Amino acid sequence: MIRGLLLDFYGTVVEDDDAIIEAIGARVAAGADRSVSTGDVVREWQREFAAVADGAPFRTLRECSTRSLATVMARFGCPGDAAALCAPQFAYWRAPPMRAGTREFLAGLRVPVCVVSDVDRADLEAAMAHHGLAFTATVTSEDVGAYKPAGAMFARGLAALSLGASEVLHVGDSARNDIAGAHAAGIRAAWVNRRGGPAPAAAAYEIADLSGLAAILTAF
Q: Residues 209, 132: one domain?
């Protein structure tokens, strides 16, 4: 029986920042001292971002974004202030648009929900306030000192709901961070397929948006 939900936030409850990342990547590509595509910049930024987030010491998501972009800018010979280029991304995190089906699903939900997000706490709280959202509990990587797929993130979410791994469903859009992370923690996971790709093997369910969870929950 599903007695509670762990919800990823960006890409699941609200839209992710893909378009902002592309726009920043385009600015870096345009300012580079060599021929480089926006896609090249974005891929390098994603790799560097993961390296910073997975490394020690723990850094906030804003720090991870700025540091990794600064590395990529230096690599491609793009002058400028990485923090200034990241400013639109940080503003987006505080006021992202709601994903289709989210508000209707949450309005009819009858089980407790803990948001488990990699974003910094102040940005998560601002985004929730922007949409008037409230949840039973929220857990951020800044609270835990680790990013998904770290088991500590899921353990903190379970503790916040006072539920066991077999009693909850984790819902998220990242095959690595959400689905693999939840699976490793012994938690069933529903994958939000927002790009139309193949489902990860560890996903127990596949949905396009949160409205697809209603049928899953009524089956229990």
A: yes
Number of neighbours of residue 175 by Cβ within 10 angstroms: 20
Compute the C-alpha angle 56/17/44, nearest 5°: 55
* Closest of 106, 105, 167, 169 to residue 134, by C-alpha: 106
Residue 220, pLDDT above cutoff 80: no
Distance of CA 207 to the CA centre of its chain: 16
Structure tokens that stand for 74 in this block: 């230096």
Task: Please provide the size of the chain in residues.
Answer: 220
Q: Is the pLDDT of residue 44 over 90?
A: yes
Q: What is the mean pLDDT of residues 134-155?
A: 98
Q: What CA–CA distance (Å, rounded) separates 39 from 207? A: 27
Domain of residue 28 covers 18-94
Using CA atoms, how far apart are residues 193 and 209, in angstroms rounded to an integer?
A: 8
What confidence category does residue 196 fall into, taking pLDDT thresholds of 50, 70 and 90? confident
Same domain, 75 and 101: no
Q: What is the CATH number of the domain that holds 176?
A: 3.40.50.1000
